[in-house]
Each structure stands twice: as structure tokens, then as C-alpha cells.
Amino acid sequence: MLLEGKRAIVTGGSRGIGRGISVELARQGADVVINYFAGADQSFARDTAHDETVAEIEALGRRAIAVEGDIADPQVSADLVQAAVAAFGGVDILASNAGICPFHAFLDMPPALLQQVVGVNLNGAFYAVQAAANRMKDQGTGGAIVATSSISALVGGAMQTHYTPTKAGVHSLMQSVAIVLGPYGIRCNSVMPGAIATDINKDDWSDPKKREYLNNRIPLGRFGEPEDVAKVVAFLASDMASYVTGAALLVDGGLYVNLQ
Fold this sequence. Notes:
- By secondary structure, the protein is α/β, with parallel strands linked by helices.
- The protein has a single domain, classed as Rossmann fold (3-Layer(aba) Sandwich).
- Helices cover 45% and strands 14% of the residues.
- The chain contains 9 helices and 7 strands, in the order βαβααβαβαβαβαααβ.
- The chain has helices at 16-27, 42-45, 49-59, 74-88, 111-139, 164-181, 202-206, 208-217, 226-237; strands at residues 7-10, 31-36, 64-68, 93-96, 143-148, 186-193, 248-251.
- The longest helix is centred in the middle third of the chain and has 29 residues, at 111-139.
- The radius of gyration is 17 Å and the shape is globular.
């Protein structure tokens, strides 16, 4: 196991790519604090994904706790670190994954929607990284931070003018904090998922025509699964990547190089 005995926090860790990351880190030996947010939507308030993810991790023989909170609130990141310290004794890994992408046209983009997406995707990543890094620094044993950026950091999207800048920002954030935190032995990297089959892009992968088009554009011939991203996160969090920091790895089946 690559991460035996490590203590991890995964933001947005109960669904989609985040769930895949939470489970893979546990499979590799880590105990996991799973952050999730029910939100104002009552259908999500009744969601049991976090409980199911905890149960899946416990079935692997690792410990897990779920902590609810909107990552756009700076206090939530502090609470996640405190929860990890109380439950597991510290923090060795942060997977900053929480993100939203409510598709919307640019010309009539409501300011509130822009602020919400920036608040979760970019500000939330900043707060989570800052809180975890301070704990890692105080522990004096180094650590690993892996943020979920996106192929969208490198390409445009007509219905994603509020989303793509935040993912470019996450990529840039990891480059900058890699410089700041390197002297403390804290490595900071990002993954850039391409077309991954999750709730956030369900319209694309559930529509047969869109799926066929994208499958034809992806050199490996298929949509990715959350596990495809999770395995790369586990690698970057492990000692196998001990000399890797400030890097961004595309996890897209080759889609980016075939977009031209």
C-alpha cells in the first residue's frame, strides 16, 4: 500500500471524483476525513452518499469520518483539519477536490452564480490548502497536497466562462504554493481530469450522440471513471512522487492532445 498509516482530508469527498479519491486513498492505507455539503437543496439534504462512502472505506479496514460544510466558508477548512487531528492525530494528505459547474451562458451570467462558483472552486481550494498546510508545517513531517483542476484550465468552454477560470486558478495556486511550501517538505500538485463520467457532466456522458462524439475524440476510446483520477491522486500523494511538486497531470485519455 502506498499510503499506509497516512491521514487524509478529501473535500467534496462523497460523490463522483471525490468519492473515488476517498476510497482509493483508503485502499492504499490512509484514514480519511470526507468533506461533503448537503446545501439548500433538500434532495441533497437527504443524500446518503457520505455515509455510503464511510462504510466503503471501513469495509477496507480503514477509518473514516464525514464532516459537512460548504468549503467556500473559511471556517469549514479549519474544522476539517481539527476533525482530522481529533480523529487521527494529524494531517498528511489533502485532496482539494470540491467543485461545482452549473452550466450557464456568459452574456446573462448572474453575478451571484459567478460568485458561488468562484467561492467554491477557487476560494474554497485556497482555504483548504492554507489550513492543511499550516497543520503540516506545525507537524514538521512534510505532507502532500493534490488539487483537482481540470482540462478546462487549458481550453475554453462556452457554457463554462465562470468555471474554467477557477480551474486555471487552482492550477496556478498549486504552482505558487509549491514554491512556498517546498521548504517544509510539503509537495503540491494538481490533476487535470478530462471527460470523467460523474454527476457534474451527466448531460454529456448520458446522451448517446455526445458520448459517441467524445469517445471518438478520446484516443483511449472511452470516458474516464472517477477511479482513473483517484489512482493518480494516490500516486502524487505517495512517496513514489517524492520529487514531484508544482506539477499538473492531465488525466484525460489523451483528449487534450486531440482537441486541435
